[in-house]
């Protein structure tokens, strides 16, 4: 892709962010009753300070990376000077409804393995915070295994986060922590929308960068059923029927991206005026043969704070906290509901229920509630 094209895309996304921020301010008082169901993986606020940046905030101690990856393959522990270098590839505009782009060879093979090695030992069954009016089996929409990886944890991760910032045109401090996901046979995430609205940290989630770390033998496509692809995207999609699963084909609706190791998709979940873009709904189709690994970076309209410890208060930050707690979300989604190292969004409702499974620091989050009794 010519350099002029890259400059044009970066200029466009910067205009988008400025326009979006202005539109969001104008809509700040608007009701959130029509907000999309909350996405699994909503990080909330995490207290762990990031490791010093390898790209401007001080030198990162390489021993951290060595210790984290000491049992990993040789290729996964190469120095950041080698595998943290900027990947060289090409990007393609897939659609303007939603705004979606494919960057081929966004990550090197060693970077892919590095990210897997960082989170492999911490993978747990993915969960989903209940949406309005829904209880019970909301978690069945997501059947993968996942974990979060602290921002700026290693030089390699810092380099990837900087590349995501350059690709999206949005500073890395607007990113949530990276989510690593593993999809095995039959595992999927049904059609959903990433553009959740929060009253606090980072506010709207406006963009997603989805990176493929390992590709399955068959299936696992990222499918946009309501998208209006560009003619070239549509033509390639229609010509790929034999390579697509039934989910990826979906009777020819929208378009799908077949996972390829090192590739990344960037798409925006909102229009420039700040309203939700329904065309950004997407699904991770069932992985039918082999195993798929992905890394996701969700990006907010404002800086996403994962470093500041907040003094615990006995309060619920969301109107649905009591209902979510009644349906078991304190146990299913402890990061969002109760908090792990920084108090979560529904501490009052969770502290009013069984505390036997709470960690010592979570029990400290409940102390302000005990003082009010």
TrEMBL record:
- Membrane association type: Single-pass type II membrane protein
Extract the SMART domains matched here: P4Hc
Q: Which UniProt keywords apply?
A: Dioxygenase, Iron, Metal-binding, Oxidoreductase, Signal
The residues forming the signal peptide are 1-28
- Catalysed reaction equations from the record: L-prolyl-[collagen] + 2-oxoglutarate + O2 = trans-4-hydroxy-L-prolyl-[collagen] + succinate + CO2
Pfam families documented for this protein: 2OG-FeII_Oxy_3 (PF13640)
Q: Which GO terms describe its cellular component?
A: endoplasmic reticulum membrane
Q: Which cofactor does it need?
A: L-ascorbate
InterPro entries reported for this sequence:
Oxoglu/Fe-dep_dioxygenase_dom, P4HA-like, Pro_4_hyd_alph, Pro_4_hyd_alph_FE2OG_OXY
- Matching PROSITE patterns: FE2OG_OXY, PROKAR_LIPOPROTEIN
Q: Locate the Fe2OG dioxygenase domain: which residues?
A: 174-301
Localization, UniProt = Endoplasmic reticulum membrane
Primary residence: endoplasmic reticulum
Gene Ontology molecular functions: iron ion binding; L-ascorbic acid binding; procollagen-proline 4-dioxygenase activity
PANTHER family the record matches = PROLYL 4-HYDROXYLASE 6-RELATED, PROLYL 4-HYDROXYLASE ALPHA SUBUNIT
Please state what the protein is called: Oxoglutarate/iron-dependent dioxygenase
The organism of origin for this protein: Ostreococcus tauri (Marine green alga)
